[in-house]
Amino acid sequence: GLERFWHTNPVRHRFDFVNVYGCFAVEMVCLYKDCVSSGAPSEWLRLVLLLHITRILRVVHYIHPLKQIANFVVRLAPTYYRMGMLLLLVYYVYGQFGQQFFGGLIYSRNPALEGTDFAQSNYWPMNFNDFNSGMVTLFVLMVVNNWFVITGAYIKAAGTRWAVLFFVSFFLIVNMIVLNILMALIIDCSATVREEMERQEEEEEEGAAGGST
User: Which superkingdom, per the lineage (predicted)?
Assistant: First the structure.
């Protein structure tokens, strides 16, 4: 019955319920609004296509590598959340300090930056003139995208080599500590998930063998 369907394998069955009946409801709306014959792009048609595409997620349960990756991502969600909050805190602190130390120093007519790789690459949005731009700049620094070009520009704009401490400390805290901790947790979780899936498969095989006898 419906209660057994809803509570047995709840993730898969509830996904099927929402997807199938949601798609049916949206298709009825499309027929009522005559979305197809109008010729104009419709948000309802896009929603129908999106719901049909999400059906491919059902394949994850039947393909072992995909199932392992899906379980892996679900198990890592709390870890990503904690590390994300830690990164957000570090970003916020460095964003505030960046505004205090370097706010207003990066602009296209700054003579100190004339002819530099920073100016030639049009990296002007990489600044701490406001909080949002500071967050973008810190992300670029985290992924080490021309890190030395940005750092060199700020050293010249600030007029002191002590400015390098800001960027080196950010690199050490984020790239060498936080992200390495995240990678270690990912590796540890992947081994744990693999062992649990192998144990679950063995139990299912034993249960199937016991049922057949």
Answer: Eukaryota
In the chain, where the domains are located: 1-62, 63-211
**CA-based diameter of the chain, in Å?**
85
| Residue-wise pLDDT tens digits, 78-137 | 878 888 898 999 999 999 999 999 999 999 899 999 989 999 999 999 999 999 999 999
Quick one: tokens of 53?
A: 């595409």
Give the C-alpha separation, 182 to 95, whole Å. 22
Just give the CATH number of 63-211.
Answer: 1.10.287.70
Distance between CA 157 and CA 111 in Å, rounded? 9
141 burial (CB, 10 Å; 0-12 / 13-18 / 19+) is buried
CB proximity list for 142: less than 8 A, separation 6 or greater: 170, 174, 175, 179
Residues 6+ apart with CB under 8 A from 14: 6
Measured CA to CA, the distance from residue 209 to residue 134 in angstroms comes to 60
Instruction: Please name which of 82, 164, 60, 153 lies closest in space to residue 112, comparing C-alpha atoms.
Output: 153
What's the gap between Cα 99 and its chain centre? 26
Residue with tokens 């750092």: 151
Task: Find the radius of gyration of the CA atoms of the chain.
Answer: 26
pTM, entire model? 0.69
CA torsion sign for 93, 97, 103, 108 is negative
